[in-house]
Amino acid sequence: MEKNFTLKIFEAVENFGLWILDKIFLKKLADFYREHLEGMRYLVCGALSTVVNIVAYILGSYVIFSGVIDEQLKVNISEIFAFIAALIFAYWVNKTVVFNSKCENFKALIKEIASFTTCRIFTEIISIGMMNFAVYANINDIVMKVIANIVVIILNFILSKLIIFKKDKK
């Protein structure tokens, strides 16, 4: 199976990181990573997706939509903006790096994108609920954003593994 460009780049950085771990006497950690490659790649890509999501939320909330007076509306618009940015990034890295998904045809690709988007909308609804609770309970929105992302990463891995990128799809 030929590797895509994104996977080649990721593997080069990954191998460098594992080499460093081996050299600084963290070989057990490097070995654990290698033994659980798919899960570890998911965590790395999930962390990168979380960074995209949080940065997009901050940009939305404090720059792009800063003029919105209603705090609840600003949080919701910023959350949707962050969701779309992270959705695009997450699909790309999950498809190419984590699950190395190959679609047989255009119909399979559309089905994969639709199931990915549907599952992510489901977990985004959970995230939006958590963010609205933060506004209602006067909890710092950035703190809640981080907590919500942890919950969402766990749910997204389960859904990706069981539904979206399962190996026996047609």
What does this structure look like?
The chain has 170 residues and is mainly α. It folds into 2 domains: 1-35; 39-164, no CATH class. The protein contains 6 helices and no strands. It has helices at 5-23, 27-35, 37-64, 71-98, 106-136, 141-164. Helix 3 packs antiparallel against helix 4 (71-98), helix 4 packs antiparallel against helix 5 and helix 5 runs antiparallel to helix 6.
Task: Please indicate the percent range of residues in DSSP E strands (runs of 2 or more).
Answer: under 5%
Q: Mean of residue pLDDT?
A: 88
Strand-pairing-aware structural class: mainly alpha
Q: Number of DSSP helices?
A: 6
Sheet with most strands: none
| Ends apart, CA distance between termini | 17 Å
Number of individual domains: 2
Q: What percent of residues adopt helix (DSSP H or I)?
A: over 70%
H and E order: HHHHHH
Instruction: State the shape.
Output: globular
Strand segment tally? 0
Q: Which assembly state applies to the chains in this document?
A: single chain
| Unreliable runs | none
What's the gyration radius in Å? Answer: 18 Å
Keywords:
2 domains; 170 residues; mainly alpha
Quick structural overview:
This protein has helices spanning 5-23, 27-35, 37-64, 71-98, 106-136, 141-164. It is an all-alpha fold.
